[in-house]
DNA sequence: CTGAAAGCGCTTACAG
DNA sequence: CTGAAAGCGCTTACAG
């Protein structure tokens, strides 16, 4: 489609838009007076052939400004040197960290990243995976909404690493939620909160359930009453939408599934002219870009997103120095948490 | 490297990690009892062959759960159905909008996006372009740091679209800076500012120069004195670093190259216990995610980033319905701008 | 409409 | 060490 376009009359793109044929190993072979197979060896396995010959070939390649065609190389070898990353929603800043870490790790190993979006749909995620699989050496599912079955099925057909998701027999990079959650719950309790809520994310999100479970465990340990609200969309709007449930629940503090929901909830509270943290203390998860820009700055449980992306790619490439190791979490104390006031949002629900 | 790894003894990944051979058109041909070339036609050019035969072939393909191998298809056709997007820095939230828009537009046309980062280096950008070119049907340079020469050279070898950069004879998507800048400058003047600064971005950024030029033109028209500060890194730190120059300049308001610099500057001012906008009014460019989270929320000149990414891909794919049309800009009024106080940051420089 | 063949640009056993 | 050949999974003139 691109190349078939007739040049528009008004645009002077004479040589532009018309692909110049790239030199191949045959061109080099002719120039260096060797067999193409020798060129291939010289270029892809340095040191394996006569040094003189190799030098001659390299010189010819340089002269022709030759670049290997990765597509042509991929066909016989099955190695594409690209990695597919599938995320639920690129719009979500949580992904930025993962994308960035994954891109850097991939680039550092000479790999290219292909990013695809599933739009929070398991079905679309499966389609995307199938579509991209033949072109990649492996897949990382950044925020899978797929069932365990399907994930195992994919893992049988291609190297696969999961982020924030645990499926028996499949590689994954997972956080150690306990330290961050302990610090958060302890922080709330020491502030005087007695009744708190977990605002959960998408029902299909494994990590949302895990976060809720860990909070439940720790809240019980520390003698706090916990109410679960949700599920909701992992977005600003999802957080805003939870406002009335939060009021009804009678809690004085909420830990949201992620920073986006936390921020959305804070803004809804502010829009109702109630103060944060006076009327409601709010804690998020992730520490995304901008979490410290909010008013008040958001207290949040940081999970190292960059590191997750980086490690997922490392696992995929077999550089699994840290295989099985959990990523640390920690509470980042800012200003969205405080002493519950007598007039907190949920007081009349008691 | 991935497939060669010996399965670790402790991991029960027997069939996992070992690629199951995918079915090919030869498998289908055998099953449907036709020639492979017929299979190819049936699948890639529906309606071109006998309907009965086509149905038989489709049934066989379905039964085998066949997916075309895009790499194998790309070799004879030269069409990869993927697009390369090169950005200076994925870390920069400005890119998020572009990436998102580009990804959506690409996906909508059945294309896959490859993202590469040049890390603000023209040299690395050139390398990335060369590396990725054989695998893509076209390139969009999101924030090119390349010289005009090199860009033209690339454009001669592959379909290419520029964002925020104008090079004769090369397709590009550009903003119409005037309305946004006019509104911003007028806004500052009506607030009582008389002496303002433009905090410029990277010296190699074409759009940074354009923004500065447009501000200069409009400031002159409206009778404001303009000082240029910079160049600086287009980051939070770049904004912070400009603090002392801003103080020295004696201005009461600054328009920064982008929101990141604007936010960085605001935070530096706040860290010095000076109020924004009292001590200094600050305006950014772009309206990135989080620009409305800041304290105070950032007044900024919005440029539609998603739309830029989307349109760049559309141009690349020849769906150039809006070719040559400029993207609109507008001032988003928030709270980082106000009346200059007598005690503004730059007062003693006068 | 369909088959047989050649070719896309590489890699890699197999000989010599 | 190097050449000649086959093959990766497709597509597409060329015949029939």
Q: Under the CATH scheme, which architecture of the largest domain in chain A would be assigned?
A: 3-Layer(aba) Sandwich
| Most extensive contact | A-B, 64 and 65 residues
Reported by name, the CATH topology of the largest domain in chain A is: Rossmann fold
In percent, how much strand structure appears in the residues of chain A? 15-25%
Q: What is the CA-CA span between the terminal residues of chain A?
A: 65 Å
Layout of helices and strands:
Two copies of one chain form a homodimer.
Chain A: H1 25-32, H2 36-44, H3 51-64, H4 70-77, E1 82-87, H5 93-108, E2 112-117, H6 122-132, E3 138-141, H7 148-157, E4 160-163, E5 171-173, E6 175-176, H8 177-191, E7 195-199, H9 206-221, E8 225-229, H10 236-241, H11 243-249, E9 253-256, H12 259-271, E10 281-286, E11 299-302, H13 305-316, E12 327-328, E13 330-332
Helix pairs in contact in A: 1-2, 1-3, 5-13, 8-9
Chain A binds a DNA duplex (16 and 16 nucleotides) through residues 24-26, 34-38, 40-41, 44, 48-50, 53, 68-69, 71-78.
Description:
Two copies of one chain form a homodimer. With 350 residues, chain A is α/β, with parallel strands linked by helices. Chain A has three domains: 25-67, no CATH class; 82-173, Response regulator (Rossmann fold), CATH 3.40.50; 175-298 and 334-348, 3-Layer(aba) Sandwich (Rossmann fold), CATH 3.40.50. Chain A contains 13 helices and 13 strands. In chain A, the strands form three sheets. In chain A, strands 8-7-9-10-11-13 form a six-stranded mixed sheet, sandwiched between helices. A five-stranded parallel sheet of chain A has the order 2-1-3-4-5, sandwiched between helices. Chain A has a two-stranded parallel sheet with strand order 6-12. In chain A, strand 1 (82-87), helix 5 and strand 2 (112-117) form a beta-alpha-beta unit. The relative contact order of chain A is 0.12. Chain A binds a DNA duplex (16 and 16 nucleotides) through helix 2 and helix 4.
């Amino acid at each position: 489609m691109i190349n078939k376009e007739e040049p528009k009359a008004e645009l002077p793109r004479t040589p532009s838009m018309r692909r110049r044929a790239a030199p191949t190993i045959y061109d080099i072979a002719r120039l260096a007076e060797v067999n193409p197979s020798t060129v291939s060896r010289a270029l892809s396995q340095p040191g394996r052939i006569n040094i003189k010959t190799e030098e001659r070939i390299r010189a010819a390649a340089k002269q022709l400004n030759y670049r290997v065609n990765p597509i042509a190389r991929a066909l016989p070898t099955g190695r594409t040197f690209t990695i597919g990353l599938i995320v639920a929603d690129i719009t979500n800043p949580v992904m930025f960290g993962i994308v960035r870490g994954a891109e850097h790790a991939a680039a550092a190993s000479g790999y290219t990243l292909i990013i695809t979006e599933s739009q929070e749909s398991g079905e679309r995620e499966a389609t995307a995976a199938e579509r991209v699989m033949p072109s990649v050496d492996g897949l990382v599912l950044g925020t899978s909404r797929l069932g365990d079955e399907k994930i195992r099925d994919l893992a049988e057909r291609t190297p696969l690493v999961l982020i924030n998701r645990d499926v028996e027999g499949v590689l994954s990079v997972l956080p150690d939620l306990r330290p961050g959650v302990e610090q958060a719950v302890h922080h709330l309790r020491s502030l005087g909160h007695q009744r708190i809520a977990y605002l959960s994310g998408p029902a299909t999100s494994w990590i949302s359930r895990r976060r809720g479970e860990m909070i439940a465990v720790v809240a019980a340990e520390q003698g706090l009453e916990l109410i679960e609200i949700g599920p909701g969309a992992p977005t600003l709007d999802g957080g805003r939408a939870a406002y009335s449930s939060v009021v009804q629940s009678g809690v004085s503090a909420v830990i949201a599934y992620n920073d986006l929901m936390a921020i959305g909830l804070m803004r809804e509270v502010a829009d109702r002219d109630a103060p944060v943290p006076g009327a409601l203390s709010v804690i998020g998860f992730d520490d995304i870009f901008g979490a410290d820009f909010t008013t008040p700055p958001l207290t949040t449980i940081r999970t190292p997103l960059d590191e997750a992306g980086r490690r997922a790619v490392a696992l995929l490439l077999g550089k699994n120095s840290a295989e099985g190791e959990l990523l640390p979490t920690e509470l980042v104390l800012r200003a969205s948490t405080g002493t519950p006031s007598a007039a907190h949002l949920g007081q009349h629900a008691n």
